[in-house]
Amino acid sequence: MSEHEVQYYSAEELAKKWDDNQVALPKIPFFLINLYQFIMPLFVVLFFIAGILYLYSIFQVSIWVQILLAPGIFMVSVYLLIWSMSKFCRILNTYYDKKSPPKEGLYSREFDKRNVVDPAVHYYHLRGFMYKWPVWVSKKSIFPWMVNYVLRDMAGNKIHKNAYYGDSYVCLEFSELSDGVVIENGAVISSHVVDSIFGNLTVKKVFMKKNAVLNSTAVMAPGTNIDENCAVGPRSFVPKNWQISGEKSEFIYGVPSKYFDYRNFLDLLPESFQTQWEEKKKEWINSEKSIK
């Protein structure tokens, strides 16, 4: 259902409409996604290890050398597992895109006895379920930086190589993070939101421009845009379609996030810290010039 076809109801109408509603989702597709995500990458790793053992037997590598090489083989295996997960999910995502290409908009989450009525929402559920496992594995692995690669490769997000995701709730799709973007630990960035379990589904792209910062425990909702060099303070909320510009201030906070009388976060620091920061900034600028 397109944005123009979505119907709006009063609270009383919704209560009556949802009184006998039930969530009905088919279990088999999600179960098959789990099997596919787990088994296919595992085959790649097993073939790699089998190849290593075959080389050991051909060259008659001693047990002590094998023990010394074991940590490196393990690290390569983990890297290969995450990489292959991303690739196999990308293949499956290509199939989903042909069935129902992901689009921004407002969708109705009405259910029948077997599934959601709108096919676009059904494939949204499948894609979201598929993305979560590789993202979780990459974040909890010895290569946590690979979460950026996974989100770019399998879900088509535009994430600069210098963007930083902390231990946060990542945006699974429809995100554009520019050079120097920082998302701190515990922050939430999402391109979708559901207005209650039977309500509408909003899917809109989120933007964080160069050097934008989302501080710890801050929340960024769909359709939001944070301008260059702007920072959202801790425990702040950026509502849907909220546009944050650096014209008034480079530091905002609150629920919802608002502008205050600070040009940037330096205005919140004691004078001694401001002096130290300015000295460090000059050193960094001089080092950059010397490198060039």
Structural overview:
Helices cover 45% and strands 14% of the residues. It has 292 residues and is of the alpha/beta class. The chain has a single domain (3-25, 102-291), classed as UDP N-Acetylglucosamine Acyltransferase, domain 1 (3 Solenoid). The protein has a six-stranded mixed sheet with strand order 3-5-10-13-16-17, with no helix packed on it. Helix 2 packs antiparallel against helix 3, helix 2 (27-59) packs parallel to helix 4 and helix 4 (119-140) packs antiparallel against helix 5 (146-155). The protein is flat. The mean pLDDT is 87.
CATH class: Mainly Beta
Stated plainly, the CATH topology is called UDP N-Acetylglucosamine Acyltransferase, domain 1
Order of helices and strands: HHHEHHEEEEEEEEEEEEEEEEH
Radius of gyration: 24 Å
Give unreliable regions as ranges.
none
Please identify the structural class as seen in this structure.
alpha/beta
Identify the notable features of this structure and list them briefly.
single chain; 292 residues; alpha/beta; UDP N-Acetylglucosamine Acyltransferase, domain 1; six-stranded mixed beta sheet; five-stranded parallel beta sheet; 6 helices; flat
Short description:
The protein is of the alpha/beta class.
SSE layout and pairing:
Layout: H1 11-17, H2 27-59, H3 63-99, E1 105-108, H4 119-140, H5 146-155, E2 158-159, E3 164-165, E4 175-177, E5 182-183, E6 188-189, E7 192-194, E8 200-203, E9 206-208, E10 213-214, E11 219-220, E12 225-226, E13 231-232, E14 237-238, E15 243-244, E16 251-253, E17 258-259, H6 271-291
Parallel strand pairs: 2-4, 3-5, 4-9, 5-10, 6-11, 9-12, 10-13, 11-14, 12-15, 13-16
Antiparallel strand pairs: 1-8, 7-8, 16-17
Helix pairs in contact: 2-3, 2-4, 3-4, 3-5, 4-5
